[in-house]
Fold this protein.
Amino acid sequence: MENIHPIFDTILKKEDKEQRLKQKAGVFWFIGLSGSGKSTLVRALEHELHKRGYLTKMLDGDNLRTGINNNLGFSEEDRTENIRRASEVAKLFMDGGVITLCSLITPSHTARSMAKMIIGPEFYHEVYVSCPVEICEQRDVKGLYAKARKGEIKNFTGIDAPFEEPSAPELVIQTDLEPEEVSLQKVLKYILPIIEKKQNQ
Amino acid sequence: MENIHPIFDTILKKEDKEQRLKQKAGVFWFIGLSGSGKSTLVRALEHELHKRGYLTKMLDGDNLRTGINNNLGFSEEDRTENIRRASEVAKLFMDGGVITLCSLITPSHTARSMAKMIIGPEFYHEVYVSCPVEICEQRDVKGLYAKARKGEIKNFTGIDAPFEEPSAPELVIQTDLEPEEVSLQKVLKYILPIIEKKQNQ
C-alpha cells in the first residue's frame, strides 16, 4: 500500500497546536508546602487565563494522586515516581500546545531538577509559593498537619520530611504577607508575557 | 485570610474548556495488532481534524513508552499498568476539553474494560483497526515481528501472546481491504458528529 498523502507520515508539532490556540505553551511548576496556597492560587490563575482565552491544564495532587498516581504512596521512591509521572504528563500537555499549571510540593532540589530535565529547561518555569510552616500548620485546611503531628501520616513535608528552599525560582509569592488577590496579580503579570503568542512567531 | 473571589475556590470544568475550544471532548481508542495501521490512520486523522479547527492529542506507544511508561516492560502486569496509565492520561486530556486519540494494541477484553471504566463509558469510543496477522507480519514496518519470531521479543501480540477480537467496537476499519484514504474518510464520517459542538450544548 502506497502513501499518497504525506499526512499519514507526519506528526503535528507543538507549534501547530500553539498556532491553533493562539498561545505559547509552557509548564509553570508551583512548589511549596502543603497549605502554602499553591492550589488556591493556581485555580484562580486558571480562571483568569480562561477569561482571556488561554487554554490551560491544572495538574495537582487531587487529579494525579486519585488517577495516574493512585498506586503510589509517600516513600521517597514513590514521591520521586510521583514527580516523574507528573513531569511526563505535563510534557504531553505542553507538547499539545497547552499552558500547564502544576501545583505540587516538590520538596527537593533533585525532584525539581528531574522535572526540569524531563520537561526541557526552556519550558520549565518554577514559581515558589512561600509561606512559613507555622502558618501552613495553623491553616491546615485539609487537616493533614494534625495527622502528621499525631504520627498518622509519615514523611510529611515540613514536619518529619524536609522542604529544601528553592535556589532559583523565577517568581516568589509570599502568601503570608499579601492577600490572595495581590498574589494573583503578580502571577498574571509574570505569566502573560511568556504565554502570549506574538505575530509571526 | 478571607476569600473574596469565588475563583479561588472553584475549578474549571470540562464544559468550560469545550466552550473555549468549540468542540466536544472524548477519547477515541484505536485498538489492533502491531502493523495494523492504527498510528498511520490516527496521524492522518489528527491532521484532518486540525485543519477543521479541532484540538486533539494523540497518545501512542511512541510518546507513552518513551515517557510516562518508560519504566514498564512487556510482562502481563506491566502491560496492564501501561494501559491503566494511558487511560488516566487520556482522561486528563478529555477533562481538559481535548479530543484524545489513543493508538494502542490493547489486546484483551480486560484491558479495554479497564480503559472504558477509567475514562467513563460515555466518553470511551472504541475503533478496531483490523488486519490479519499474516499481513501485519508481511508489512513489519518496525521489524518487530521478525524479532518476535526469533524469540528476541517475548509476549508479542499475534505471535506468542493473544489478541482477543473486540466484542462491540463502535467502528471497524479493515486496512487490508481498503486504501488508507478510504479508511480515513470512514473515521472522519464517524467522528465528526461526536465531537461537533452544537449551539446551546
Observations:
- The two ends of chain A are 38 Å apart (CA to CA).
- The helical segments of chain A are 14-21, 38-51, 61-65, 76-95, 109-119, 133-139, 144-149, 180-195.
- The first strand of chain A starts at residue 26 and ends at 31.
